[in-house]
Amino acid sequence: MQDLLTLTYAVGGIAAAAFHVPQWLRLWRTPALVAGISPWSWLGWFGISLNSLAYALLVNHDRALIAMSVLTIVCQAVMLSLMARAHAKVRTAQRAATDDPAASLGAAVP
User: Fold this and answer.
1) Whole-model pTM over 0.85
2) Which residues cross the membrane (predicted)?
3) What is the tens place of the pLDDT at every residue in 42-60?
């Protein structure tokens, strides 16, 4: 029974990692979506995951928990990196719009 639970835990962790991919792709393709994503939530989850990894490494020594913690941390780090990239792209676009004198006149400038 324990082996079955370990297997389902691993499969669930891999599936959870795969569920990050659609979010990454949307954020990569449409950086403006970052406005609707809380960086504090992702940073909080990242911190909790680091704590889980520390627990797994130092207290529990469970290889499955260590592997899933590392996988989760990698996924969260990718998300945080994509969020930082998206914020930078949005800021750059906003600066370009305010620096362009035609932008304040509208798109149709003869």
Assistant:
1) no
2) 6-25, 37-58, 64-84
3) 999 999 999 999 999 999 9
